[in-house]
Design a protein that fits this description.
Number of strands: 22
Strand order of the largest sheet: 8-9-10-11-14-19-20-22-21
Strand content: 25-35%
Shape: globular
Structural class: alpha+beta
Length: 365
């Protein structure tokens, strides 16, 4: 029987590898280039979000003049006709449009980021954002199976989308510390904030798509250690999930995941003389709030769902504060944290968490 088991396993791997090789893949050199590819499987154009293209399917190269320069067909394993490297053009700029979405509660507005072609809008992700307080609420996007995914672009400019002219200054360290001296009575050396992506650049495979995530309506003030610590570990786990590292074929194939990311509360720090707990904002004492918590809700069409909750500080929250919003449960077996990963992150019962903290996302995430 053991020999039969190993034979069946070998055959399964053979057919799996064969099926992967039978597909075409958009190479890293094309993803690193300034290219925007569209799909058109059912006579409806959409953004090509995966580097995997099935045989007989087409990808279309969209240029900044709003026209398609070339059409490429996957004709056999890893072979496009014509070759993808034969054509290139600068892509159009992403656009931001307001959309109706009942999960985004007034006074916040849902903004969708994407591209237009032939008068149609192709959405990449959407964010619920309060333009008055410059406060991020939540984002929604889908991530698709991929093999190739380039590194995050460096020195990418952040776009304000006409929401405010004060974003860049507010996030600068000296401005942050001046705010803290005014409101807290002293410099707060541990308060170093990143412009933390909510819909992450890593969710998308190419340079053009990644650059579209560098928008202030897609950012929060996130403690640097947390952003680069446990929050990053969770982001990496999502990418491993959609790449198939935790598939349980044929029962589960996590090739498309919906991800909702949100912020809860306003972080508070103690005044150095009065000991009062002061809510922290980066601009004008009432704009760009520093969230107290961040969460990710990851769901699959099978009904599988996970919630990860992270405290936005380099110290841990009180047990009572955590219990008030999260019924802690074991994390997915593939999600591991080390002692050197900064930040306090736990996994929560999804339905309990959404009911307590995000009823507006019921049935959405």
């Amino acid at each position: 029987m053991p020999d039969l088991k190993y034979l069946l396993t070998s055959l399964s791997l053979y057919y799996f590898v064969g099926s992967v090789q039978a597909r075409c893949h958009i190479a890293l050199v094309q993803l690193e280039g300034n290219n925007l590819y569209l799909s058109n499987h059912t006579r409806v154009y959409d953004i090509q979000r995966s580097d995997i293209v099935e045989i007989g399917h087409f990808v279309h190269l969209l240029c900044n003049d709003g026209k398609i320069l070339e059409v490429f067909e996957c004709i056999s394993g890893s072979v496009f006709s014509p070759a993808l490297s034969s054509k290139a053009c600068a892509p159009p700029n992403p656009v931001v449009v307001e959309v109706k979405d009942t999960s985004c509660i007034i006074p916040s507005t849902m903004y969708a980021v994407g591209y237009t072609f032939n008068g149609n809008f192709m959405e990449l992700y959407r964010n619920c954002y309060n333009a008055n307080s410059l406060a991020f609420q939540h984002s929604i996007y889908k991530t698709y199976r991929f093999q190739n995914n380039i590194e995050r672009p460096e020195n990418c400019p952040w776009m304000s989308d006409e929401l405010s002219g004060g974003f860049n200054g507010a996030y600068k360290g000296e401005k942050t510390q001046a705010c803290f001296v005014t409101n807290l009575g002293a410099i707060q050396p541990q308060c170093k904030f990143d412009r933390g992506h909510m819909t992450p650049a890593s969710a998308f495979i190419s340079k053009a798509l990644k650059e579209s995530t560098f928008r202030y309506l897609n950012a929060i003030p996130q403690y640097r250690g947390v952003n680069r610590g446990k929050w990053k570990v969770v982001e990496t786990w999502v990418n491993k999930m959609v790449r198939g590292m935790y598939d349980d074929a044929p029962t589960r194939t996590y090739d498309v995941l919906k991800v909702c990311i949100g912020a809860l509360g306003v972080h508070r720090l103690k005044h150095t003389t009065s000991n009062n707990m002061i809510p922290i904002y980066l601009l004008d004492n009432n704009k760009i709030p520093v969230p107290e918590w961040m969460y990710k809700i990851v769901s699959h069409l099978s009904g599988d769902k996970w919630v990860m909750l992270t405290y936005n500080d380099i110290v841990s929250p009180s047990d009572n504060a955590l219990k008030a919003i999260c019924n802690v449960k074991p994390c997915h077996p593939g999600l591991h944290f080390t002692a050197t990963d900064t930040g306090h992150t736990v996994c929560c019962d999804p339905y309990d968490f959404i009911t307590k903290n995000a009823k507006h996302l019921t049935g959405v995430c």
